Amino acid sequence: MRKRSLSVRQNLLLIWKLAILLSFIFLVFALVRIHFYYDDRSPDDDDGDVFQGNPSLAFMFLVRRDLPLDFLWQTFYQNVDAANYSIYIHSEPGFVFDETTTRSSFFYGRHLSNSIKVGWGESSMIEAERLLLRAALQNPANQRFILLSDSCVPLYNFSYIYNYLMGSSKSFVDSFLDMKEGRYNPRMSSVIPMRKWRKGSQWIALVRSHAKVVAYDNVVFPVFKKLCKRRPPLDVSKGKQNLKLQRQHNCIPDEHYVQTLLAMNDLEGELERRTVTYTLWIQSATNMETRSWHPVTYNYASANPQQIKRIKDINHVYYETEHRTEWCKSNSISVPCFLFARKFSRDGAMRLLTQGSFDSSALSHTSP
Asked: Is 152 within a domain?
């Protein structure tokens, strides 16, 4: 009986020691994660929200390689006070912006040195966006953060865009409920509840506090990286295996990540739930398997003054899944919905310069 009692005490002692050891390991792991989290952050971030100097717009270009419309942006930035903006470019690894690769000195040396290889419809797209945000957050003067593509053009002059964005205390994030397409993977539910699942355009304009949420998120991004993946295209060589592949959730990370992350952080009340970048989508449908949406590219013929005026005159956006009409406002004042547009070819962008759609008189507008 005594031996049995001794054995029980020894087992309890062993369990107690094991519990202490596991608690210690968990504590060390938590401290390491906290260390890396704060080590990855900019030392200026804690002071960014109380910055007292001249606020700056951070223009963040997510490009394949070069900037084919650099000549247009050269005109846009010309004669603008350099204290009012900063430029960051995520290009392919190793690509350098200098006098040999761009016609505009505004882009010299603006590329990220830690860029990654980006694949369309992959989590690398949102990781590149996060890299841009982290770089831009290192400058405490940056108070608004605009994500742009290599085919984007501004619709107004710098001062109008600056006043429009700085004049609003909200971020501009296209965000709506997504209940139809089956992109939500139920395996996400332990972290991302379906009621918080959102969809929208990746072209965002964030205030600094929201930029931090996106740049330093270490909860939602790992789930997207693991479970939000683009469905592979049909491959005839795979035969019947295609049936299994086509049953996968066709999740496009950059169309869901920022919207869902901000919804999960209960920040939707701090958003204008619309984008400030115009895109016209058309559907190609040769058959059900290849049906997809593609943005219209504006070339020389279609980038005419009448078309530009039509875009600039848009004052509301309708969201079918929510039966919601978003009337475009900034601080309760009605404003045009869009500040930028895509996708523009080189000759389309050139027409904006040569035919008056981009000159100072055409771009002048009462400040919001």
From this structure: yes
The model's pTM is 0.81
Residue 284 lies in a domain: yes
CA distance 190 to 193: 7
State pLDDT tens for residues 54-75. Answer: 999 999 999 999 999 999 999 9
SS (H, E, C) the chain: CHHHHHHHHHHHHHHHHHHHHHHHHHHHHHHHHHHHHHHHCCCCHHHHCCCCCCCEEEEEEECCCCCCCHHHHHHHHCCCCHHHEEEEEECCCCCCCCCCCCCCHHHCCCECCCCCCCCCCCCHHHHHHHHHHHHHHCCCCEEEEEEEECCCEECCCHHHHHHHHHCCCCEECCCEECCCCCCCCHHHCCCCCHHHCEECCCCCEEEHHHHHHHHCCCCHHHHHHHHCCCCCCCCHHHCCHHHHHCCCCCCCHHHCHHHHHHHHCCCHHHEECCCCEEECEEEECCCCCCCEEEECCECCCCCCHHHHHHHHCCCEEEEHHHCEEEECEECCEECCCCCEEECECHHHHHHHHHCCCCCHHHHCCCCC
> Mean pLDDT per segment of 10 residues, for the chain of length 368 residues?
58 69 57 43 48 93 97 95 97 97 97 95 95 98 98 95 95 89 86 95 97 98 92 58 58 95 97 96 53 79 93 94 89 92 95 70 44
Does 22 reside within a domain? Answer: no
Q: pLDDT for 19-42, tens place per residue?
A: 676 666 655 454 444 444 444 444
Q: Does residue 20 lie in a domain region?
A: no
Enclosing domain of residue 122: 46-363
